[in-house]
Amino acid sequence: MKIVVIGGGPAGLGAAGAALGVNPSAKMDVYTEFEDVAYSPCGIPFVHGKEIESFEKLFLATKQQYQDQGINVHYTTSVESIDTRGHTIKVRGGAKVSYDRLVIGSGWNYADTGLDRHGLKGIYEVKNIRRAMEWDKYLDTVKDAVIVECGPIALEMVSALVHRGIKTTVVDPGPWPMAGVVDPDIIAPVRKDWEAAGVTTMWGERVTAFGGNGTLTHVDTTAGRIPAQLAIIGTRKVSNNALAKAAGIELGSTGGIVIDSHMRTSARDVFAAGDCTEIPHGVTNVPLQGLSGSHAYAQGKAAGMNAAGGNREYQPVYVPWAMLAGEWMIGGISFGETSAAAIGIKFVSGVANGITRARYFPGVKPITVKLLADPATHRLIGAQMVGGEGVKERADFLGVAIRAGITIDELANMENVYSPAIGALNEPINMAALEVMKKF
Amino acid sequence: MKIVVIGGGPAGLGAAGAALGVNPSAKMDVYTEFEDVAYSPCGIPFVHGKEIESFEKLFLATKQQYQDQGINVHYTTSVESIDTRGHTIKVRGGAKVSYDRLVIGSGWNYADTGLDRHGLKGIYEVKNIRRAMEWDKYLDTVKDAVIVECGPIALEMVSALVHRGIKTTVVDPGPWPMAGVVDPDIIAPVRKDWEAAGVTTMWGERVTAFGGNGTLTHVDTTAGRIPAQLAIIGTRKVSNNALAKAAGIELGSTGGIVIDSHMRTSARDVFAAGDCTEIPHGVTNVPLQGLSGSHAYAQGKAAGMNAAGGNREYQPVYVPWAMLAGEWMIGGISFGETSAAAIGIKFVSGVANGITRARYFPGVKPITVKLLADPATHRLIGAQMVGGEGVKERADFLGVAIRAGITIDELANMENVYSPAIGALNEPINMAALEVMKKF
Predict the structure, then answer these.
(1) Residue ranges of the Pyridine nucleotide-disulphide oxidoreductase dimerisation domain (chains A, B) (predicted)?
(2) Are both A2-37+75-110+237-307 and A123-233 of the same fold?
(3) Among A40, A82, A90, A367, whose Cα sits 20 to 30 Å from the Cα of A46?
């Protein structure tokens, strides 16, 4: 069996590895337009911020290791078209490659800002590691930077720029950073730290033009001109769907490739996974696009297994998420109060301000947990958190809880570990559940 | 309504506070034989180890604060007997105190070693904060110490003694520390660190005599004599059931006070909570005694609410647990392979060696997760972990999962957060579930 994968990110490589797990004798070819596969792009902001010493650290495996696994990676070989009837793809240079099964893992792009870049140097979309290596040198020359919409990667870049001593202005059309995802009370401590660090923020404003002469010198915004030698594009992720679209493969309302529960696209023998697709939300059934690397990887594995003849279901998502935001960790599952209200979901919420260890134990950190529940069924429908440690683990926990249909009552009656060095007498999830219970 | 509480630990104070929450006009009297209430005894080993700078830090509230809450605490006032028919208790000095409802939170003692102490100074049961303050000075004079059975508190004391530069020998009849709770592979890294720190361990051996002249100078063991100016008693917790027993209140097979789902004892209007009771295990229904401070506190709250006229059920326990063990955190839920095998529970297990952040991110720690599942239903029945961070949060997570009847299949399909600074691409719980799945 000849399996072809388009894309060398977590979806594509997850698919390639999992397909060979199911069918070790499959011929496996991966095509990527880039020079590398198997590095961690999520680490890039932290190398820019000098938390991680070098870009080399982000590479996960050598090219030889893929070869040894039976994965034939074609580097800097972009795919130009897919012929779903002929079961072939055309690669750069015009060569046709046939497949029995195709997995599209073409990933995402930053949403277009709609602004003319005038060919100016200094406008940075954080994504590719080789470009990041070059940009890192440029960062040494930058005094003033502007964030053009403050999505998650841009939010991480704010910390990196602060660490580099670069004067930073955030310009975002929303009322606070990542306003579609995070509630204002949850992001508040991050904003306070930004303020203390001298970050300028302009909420409800937009960048209207890039200006300069060869190199960026300023941006114009709805609130005036800002000097900037660097603009970080932080617009939302959109599906890199061009190939699929041209091939007549069905796209959904988000622009993501439509897939079924087995990652099959509308075209026979063509699967898709990762940020190029859209996936239904477990609570609302509304399609989502642009999730995390772990989602892309899990979807890739499911697509690869199925492409190779397996039978792996991929279920609707509840999207546990968490990230570093300056000195804080923020995270949650599914909905916050803002997003639930925006789409008209009825909810009751409760907030608890807890701590992560005994109050007297060194390293104790605050953690705020907000839980949202369905007032009729008492089921958990969302959560938001901000704290100093243990946010990712609690997000994973609540992700499993929401998928399993666990109720607030169950969380209000949960047992919890108490040991001064590692956990407080009162678990904040339990405390928040007790707060919700008061409102039923 | 006149509510009397015996005991000033987490069960007793949890009961007092929760009872007043239900019935703010109740007259609330708490009797304790000790000088203090509302400190964290769990912190004592860490003050001895100098991780925490002073015993004063362990106090949670002032005596005035309890008074202000309407809780009348009678210090150094031991209760001598309970008359369940007359609805009275007799306190030190012979005074009778009547009650409408009584909550017994008399706690635990270390199981008797059966050894004659000959009135020797140097034999330390870590429990009370005032005694700990005195013992801390004695620790400065100690060169050699012996651990007489290595229960959880004694295990924490090993680290404290190492930090104090005291040559320590652990003597335990089991094959490894806490052998009834933790699997050998989980405790292995802790033992390795002990070895590196010069701790001597004698497994499968017993202390047979304490020796000295006024002060301890040595202990005799089944493997010979050990010089020791200090012996730490680390035998298991047993119910401090003397009062209840003398009052004719029913005790169970563990010696713990038998309670129903509403913390009622066999005596009318008498409730009990915490380590003096026994509670059925959620998987086996076998009664357990001697759980954690958070269990005592939760049971106390339930007992207090019910004593005051509320209706709060306390359910069988699945016992998430976790603790610091030297540089490691160990933890789990319900059963490990050793304890499951010992009581004849059928299980399939899977182990994953994961990491807590991206492998290149500063502060990344290893974490091993072992999951046990019922081969017939695929339900989670136990877990064991050892790692450098995130063990308590995962134990809480798995505690809720086991109570909710979540299957390994669900954990194998869980979503997880990936963000380099706070979590790895592969969540170790998910990896361990995938390992179990291979064995079904």
Answers:
(1) 336-414
(2) yes
(3) A367
Under 8 Å CB-to-CB from A119, ≥6 apart: which residues?
Answer: none
pLDDT of residue B235: 97
Rounded mean pLDDT of chain A? Answer: 96
- From chain A residues 15-34, the ones with a CB under 8 A of any chain B CB are none
Please, what CATH class does the domain formed by B321-439 belong to? alpha beta
| Per-residue confidence band for B61, with pLDDT thresholds at 50, 70 and 90 | confident
pLDDT tier at A162, thresholds 50, 70, 90: very high
A278, amino acid identity: E
Q: Out of A323, A390, A399, name the one closest to residue B419 (CB).
A: A323
Q: Which residues of chain A are within 8 Å of residue B295 when distances are taken between CB atoms?
A: 415
Angle (CA) A102 A105 A111, round 5°: 140
Test mutation, A360, A364, A406, chain B, max B CBs within 10 A: A360
- DSSP class of residue A403 equals H
What is the CATH code of the structural domain delimited by B123-233? 3.50.50.60
Tokens of residue A398, six digits = 């609540």
- Does the pLDDT of residue A152 top 90, yes or no? yes
**pLDDT grade, residue A60 (50/70/90)?**
confident
Give the Cβ contact number of residue B395 at 10 Å.
29
By the 10 Å C-beta count (0-12 exposed, 13-18 middle, 19+ buried), A27 is classed as middle
Q: Which of A418, A428, A435 is nearest to A390 (CA)?
A: A428
Cβ pairs A/B, distance under 8 A: 201
CATH 3.50.50.60 correct for A321-437: no
The Cα B317–Cα B279 span in angstroms is 7
CA-based nearest residue to A7, from A313, A244, A261, A337: A244
Answer for the pair B169, B200: CB distance below 8 angstroms, yes or no: yes
Q: Closest approach of chain A CAs to the CA of B26, in angstroms? A: 22
CA-wise closest residue to B273 among B104, B402, B391: B104
Rounded to whole angstroms, how far apart are CA atoms A154 and B417? 18
Instruction: Quick: pLDDT tens for A306-320.
Output: 999 999 999 999 999
Once rounded to an integer, what is the mean pLDDT over residues A167-191?
97
Q: Give the CATH class of B2-37+75-110+237-307.
A: alpha beta
pLDDT per residue as tens digits for the range A119-142: 999 999 999 999 999 999 999 999
| Residue among A13, A419, A426 with most chain B CBs within 10 A, to mutate | A419
